[in-house]
């Protein structure tokens, strides 16, 4: 990932057996509070709705992340990500990325043609277009998590197992995302205790992340499978995102009562 705010949208996770019940529905809304060190650095939201694309009824998810308050004085972030994906198969049709991160900007749109196994990427900032070969299983940055939440269960997950998935969300081409399952853990949240499944997404070390295993993800161990917490060790400092609000969940959000 290029910058700090982008990591929130790497909420991709999967399992090994078929999911028995739908994990989400139109109207789902998730809000995350992001801390950079001792600062409340920003908020991010994910909102899912039904929309129409080329006369086809699809899911449309919008992810937004912005720095707030004192943190915005030092590093301003204003990111919007959008994905239009198939209601049944979860395949992405259109992905939009509009990024401003401390002077770094990116404005791209990707159209997926699954019949031809080609994705047309438009770099609006530099006025360029690219045709990128893709396979039948490719996902974009946002469609990935919804597709996998709705398709797979965690019942047969083996601790230490690593899974991979092809993603396309930038002009760098296909990115092979790797995810390692670390086991179960109970987290204390503002909503109460939540049993979570813990994962290690592998990231590119260097300018942003300290090393490949710098990122840790906790997902609710229920039928929703929503991200509850993300922590990352950065090249400078650390960052944490916690679930701060939710609405419109398809299934009950399980809270452990003392």
**Net shape:** globular
Low-confidence stretches: 1-18, 206-210
- Quick one: how many beta strands? 16
| Biggest sheet strand line-up | 9-8-7-6-5-4-3-2-16-15-14-13-12-11
Strand content: over 45%
* Amount of helix: under 10%
Overall description:
- The chain is mainly beta.
- Helix content is 5%, strand content 53%.
- It contains two helices and 16 strands.
- The chain has helices at residues 71-74, 143-151, and strands at 17-18, 29-36, 39-53, 56-67, 77-86, 92-101, 104-113, 118-123, 128-133, 152-153, 162-167, 175-189, 192-202, 215-220, 227-233, 238-247.
- A 14-stranded antiparallel beta sheet has the order 9-8-7-6-5-4-3-2-16-15-14-13-12-11, with no helix packed on it. Strands 1-10 form a two-stranded antiparallel sheet.
- β15 (227-233) and β16 form a beta hairpin.
- The model is unreliable at 1-18 and 206-210 (pLDDT under 50).
Question: What descriptive keywords fit this protein?
Answer:
single chain, 258 residues, mainly beta, 14-stranded antiparallel sheet, two-stranded antiparallel ribbon, 2 helices, globular
């Amino acid at each position: 990932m290029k910058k700090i705010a982008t990591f929130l949208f790497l909420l991709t996770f999967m399992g090994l057996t078929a999911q028995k019940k739908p994990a989400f529905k139109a109207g789902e809304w998730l809000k995350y509070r992001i801390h950079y060190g001792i600062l409340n650095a920003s908020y991010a939201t994910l909102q899912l709705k039904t929309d129409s694309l080329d006369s086809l009824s699809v899911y449309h998810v919008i992810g937004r992340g912005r720095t707030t308050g004192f943190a915005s004085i030092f590093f301003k972030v204003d990111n919007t990500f959008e994905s239009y994906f198939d209601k049944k198969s979860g395949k992405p049709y259109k992905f939009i990325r509009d990024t401003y991160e401390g002077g770094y900007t990116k404005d791209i749109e990707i159209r997926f043609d699954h019949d031809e196994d080609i994705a047309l990427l438009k770099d609006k900032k530099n006025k360029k277009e690219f045709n990128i070969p893709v396979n039948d299983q490719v996902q974009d940055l946002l469609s990935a998590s919804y597709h996998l939440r709705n398709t797979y269960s965690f019942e047969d997950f083996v601790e230490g197992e690593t899974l991979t998935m092809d993603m396309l969300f930038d002009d760098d081409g296909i990115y092979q995302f790797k995810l390692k399952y670390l086991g179960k853990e109970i987290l204390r949240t503002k909503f109460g205790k939540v049993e979570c499944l813990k994962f290690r997404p592998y990231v590119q070390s260097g300018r942003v992340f300290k090393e490949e295993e710098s990122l840790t993800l906790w997902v609710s161990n229920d039928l929703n499978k929503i991200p509850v917490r993300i922590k990352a060790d950065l090249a400078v400092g650390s960052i944490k995102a916690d679930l701060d609000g939710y609405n419109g969940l398809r299934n009950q959000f399980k809270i452990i009562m003392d």
